[in-house]
Design a protein that fits this description.
The protein is α+β, with helices and mostly antiparallel strands. It has ten helices and twelve strands.
Length: 339
């Protein structure tokens, strides 16, 4: 088929820019409202190694032109039989065997590395949402993957959302949060709360709906948190976080975070929001999200749009998001394959 697949040299700027062009063209077709790929984020990802994950990136060329790529994330401390895959093909070169060649190459590499399964993600339209091509999901099905988890992406557009009730919502939530106090930080977790944040983050796999994804709970300790912070700094991603401390115990028992790429200051990704099970029922999730949004907007005047994802069964978090003005846009499907 005339397709040449090679390992990406993380310091090959021309190849990196070519991959970004593929990503940009693919997003314009597949998810046109998504932020464009951020070069700083991609460069930081491929050049900054961490001890808890290995990254393998391959580039597909046809007649010397970069037409696609595949990127494999391999956990090294837990989930050592698992992997995640991101595969992209330029829309002008689809249905010509590029995706299949990349996937076949990736599976062979994963088998050589002792991995037993891989998971990837596609976007689909919702019944009342904007159109989305089904090419990604059709490709996953053709490769033999199965649907493991479905989530809905919801978006908060602060330029059109009715935020007038935010102060009233926040005041009502604080009335239920007696005995807790607010802490906020940018980028680096304060030493006093790093272990608590690690504990909460480690609960994501056990507390959040995972569908049929075969994913083990992760052990996120302080050293891993500090490594992750270094990696985000290398990607020049700004992170705004808010936590709630239980005053009697001094423990941080709820936390949320927003991540903003340097290249897209108008857009934020909602990262985890989690409350310790022993402290639920006090509206801590609502307090954390509203206070964190106010905190981020204070320092990010261009922030206008926030994207978040929820499984359909996560009714409590969906309720919080929709009360804040998040609205459903499209579906994200997690596909898993035993290899």
């Amino acid at each position: 088929m005339g397709i040449d697949i090679q390992t990406l040299d993380p310091y090959d700027d021309a190849a990196i820019d070519a991959i970004l062009r593929v990503q940009r063209a693919a997003r314009a077709v597949d998810i046109p409202d998504f932020p464009p790929p951020c070069r700083d984020s991609f460069v930081g990802l491929v050049r900054h190694e961490v001890s808890f994950q290995r990254l393998e990136t391959r580039v597909a060329r046809r007649h010397g032109e970069v037409v696609g790529y595949v990127q494999l994330a391999l956990p090294l401390r837990d989930n050592t039989e698992n992997s995640e895959i991101e595969l992209g093909v330029h829309p002008e070169h689809r249905r010509r065997g590029v995706g299949r060649a990349l996937y076949t190459h990736a599976v062979a590499l994963l088998r050589d590395l002792g991995r037993k399964r891989t998971a990837g993600y596609t976007t689909e339209a919702l019944p009342d949402g904007p159109e989305r091509p089904r090419a990604g999901s059709a490709f996953a099905e053709a490769m033999g993957a199965h649907r493991a988890l479905g989530e809905v992406r919801r978006r908060l557009d602060l330029s059109t959302a009715d935020t007038a009730d935010y102060p009233k919502l926040l005041a009502a939530a604080w009335e239920r949060a007696t005995g807790y106090r607010l802490v906020q930080w940018r980028d680096r977790v304060p030493d006093a709360y790093a272990a608590d944040v690690g504990y909460l983050d480690s609960r994501m796999v056990t507390d959040a709906p995972m569908g049929d994804l075969a994913w083990e709970p992760e052990n996120i300790d302080v050293s891993r948190i500090r490594e992750s912070e270094g990696a985000r700094a290398a990607r020049q991603t700004r992170v705004y976080s808010t936590g709630l401390v239980h005053e009697r115990s001094g423990r941080l028992v709820a936390a949320t975070a927003l991540g903003i790429e340097r290249g897209n200051p108008w857009h934020a990704f909602q990262w985890f929001t989690i409350v310790d099970p022993d402290h639920r029922g006090h509206r801590l999730g609502t307090v954390a999200k509203l206070e964190n949004l106010r905190y981020a907007r204070t320092h990010e005047p261009d922030l206008r749009v926030i994207d978040t994802w929820n499984a359909a069964v996560n009714e409590h978090m969906i309720s919080i998001n929709e009360t804040m003005g998040f609205r459903a846009v499209d579906a994200t499907i997690a596909w898993q394959q035993e290899i």
